[in-house]
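Running co-folding for NAI.
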Amino acid sequence: MTVSETGSASLDIATEDERIAGLVDLVTVADSTTETIPVEAPFDGERIGAIPACGEADVELAVERAREAQRSWAERDIAEREEVLSRFQDLVLDRRKELLDIIQLETGKARRTAFEEVQVVALTAGYYSHRGERFLGREKRKGVMPVLTDVEVNHVPVGVAGLISPWNYPFELALSDALPALLAGNAVVIKPAEQTSFIALKGKQLLEEAGLPADLFQIVTGTGPDIGPTLTETVDYVGFTGSTATGRIVAEQAGRNLKKCSLELGGKNPALVFPDADLDRTVEGMVQGAFSNTGQLCIAIERCYVHEDIFDEFVDRFVAATEELELGATYDFKPGVGSLVSEEQLEKVTAHVEDAKASGATVHVGGEARPDLGPYFFEPTVLTDVDLDMDLCCEETFGPVVSIYPFSTTEEAVEEANDTDYGLNASVWTSDTEFGRDVARRIRAGTVNVNEAYGATYASIDAPMGGMKDSGIGRRHGKEGLLKYTESQNVAVQKGQGMAPPDGVPFWLYAKLTSGALRLFDKVPGLR
Ligand code: NAI
Ligand code: MG
């Protein structure tokens, strides 16, 4: 390894797959880094390359460079920053084939699911590229003394945002949270999941092609425990997406360092099916919502509550539709379901299903690994007769496995849906949309979809998404997802009379007059 003048080491890491050639050079490494981590393609288990196992010195270097670049970025006009996002949107759409190839290469997901990522990143870039001025512009607020106190609120960038992202939607979850942070005038340092760092590096390449200044967007690769603590200590904001268990560790570190943070964590998402639901549409939407990305999706359906009057018919139709899903390890849009991401995921999914089977659950379809298709394939699986002592009843499976339970009253369905430590996403299926909305409002989840599994809420970028209870803290998307990367600064100019009694006015008189004024202000709508 040789070290260049700027302090970047030029890496000598072999890349076996040409689709990711050269990307590893975009990782920020100080000269201390020598260890590497191999990366494999889940479709066949073959090695595709390796990433540096970054440590403290690398993170410190990345944050230092980011901080330096952030100063001039924050001084640019918002319109200029919007333009970078707008050009990035075009590049993402133009270069989608390259992006889809890398996403599939690293995750083993179906190409259709990879396209969801490209779509959401493009949507997010486009959405924020038209709203920087509107959401970040200086605001006038009401001053304490009419006319005399002039108040403005400035949305000041936090500085450097550190983002830790997972492997399940690696392009979307690395980039979609970075875009508003950048627009707000921040620098970003990302630690992608070990399995999926190349697509984040590709994102960096495209952002810089779109005009993002060098050094503003840094990527450090490696394991969470090696990088997480230093990242949390040195950045100004921590954004984490991943498991609830790791989220707790990150939140503790952020708390100790008094860093602002947001966490988007796990879910055990319920779907409630009422007797008047249009079953064709419901079954189609729920099969997609359960098995998209082979179920490795924080907002995927894992629990289905179906009214007893339609239970048997629903199970038959849901099972039939699941049987029709096509699995495959190909770089085209044909198969709807791809591989799991790793041996670890395959083991976890298998353990959940085996435990349920051994405890008396009924498997209607699936239930087995498919080594004939690839080392980590697992069949879409539908279970009934699942009860509380089975691991998959309450724990997030994060695989292609759903359980169906009957219910008899709306009350009972809502209670079951809420009987979980999680509160990320839910769906309600009914022909009566007013009733659907009403049920939705009673569910303790950050997003609730009526007659859709998750796309209606998630892709409506204007509205916030995130988790209640153990599913997280904070929100992404919308105005909330941008302003979280800012500090609200209150600047007030006091004119003429100050906040004390005028010269010669005794305090008893001042207290009397002020009390009268407060009462009067409260009665006059324009002065409240
Ligand atoms: P994870 O939550 O441990 O990993 C997510 C990210 O956090 C990765 O970039 C990882 O390197 C990083 N990380 C790990 N330990 C860290 C630490 N101590 N400090 C800072 N960062 C750290 O998830 P993992 O291990 O990949 O998967 C385990 C399970 O988590 C899955 O089976 C699934 O159930 C769940 N999961 C849920 C996700 C969701 O969006 N709800 C996403 C990914 C995993
Ligand atoms: Mg982990």
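Result summary
The mean pLDDT is 96.
The longest strand covers residues 149-157.
Job closed.
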